[in-house]
Amino acid sequence: MTDFSQEPGAVSGAVSGSASDSVSEAASGKVSGHAGEVARAAERRTEPRTVIQSLGHRDLTLATAESLTAGGLSSRIAEVPGTSVALLGGVVAYSSAVKRNVLDVDAQLLQDRGAVDPDVAAAMARGVASVTGADIGIATTGVAGPEAHEGKDVGTVYLGLACRKTSAQRLGLSLPAGAEPAAAGLSPEAAQTWLSGSLLLDLHGDRGEIRAASVEGALKLVEDFLLTEPHGIGDRD
């Protein structure tokens, strides 16, 4: 297993149970650990500038759809001067109504699964890319606390990623290791148009730490996707 508090690479992990081993990884690709450590591990290895440069070099654009992070991800990306070369915009979709009406997340999927769900995260990413005209969408949905929500524990976060298949095929890009392909809430047209999936974060910490880890994890997921060689968030040595 890789402990990303010590070695280069991507954020990934299984619950470790000790402060010295707070970020490690599981075969499922789930990212688990203390939210503060997950955030710091990702932040040490990913800078918004790197992501913006990678997008620009590949002639790709990005949009964000955020629930629990409430604009924190787009704000983090926009720290880079000249971000507009790649970042087209974002949607803060705290309510299910906004997810449904603005991001076109399937109403039945939301009713059956709730908002904190892997396929909802993927649908949010597809929706924001579609509504803004971006090549790539990145989404966050989860429970930051202080209480559980819709039967999901505090610290349960899904990151959604979507890319137009034409762009992915042009550059030979695929979902990073550990990301699960979207399996529900896809229309036939969406399935033909989008490469999309999600990654589960299983985090421990307070509300601020969970939100920060979600932002950094989402940024790292975009970077991993843009790399021709992973190693993705959930990758193992």
From TrEMBL:
It comes from the Bacteria. Residues 1-53 are annotated as: Disordered. Residues 9-29 have a biased composition (Low complexity). Residues 49-168 form the CinA C-terminal domain. NCBIfam families: PncC_domain. This is Nicotinamide-nucleotide amidase. It comes from Nesterenkonia aurantiaca.
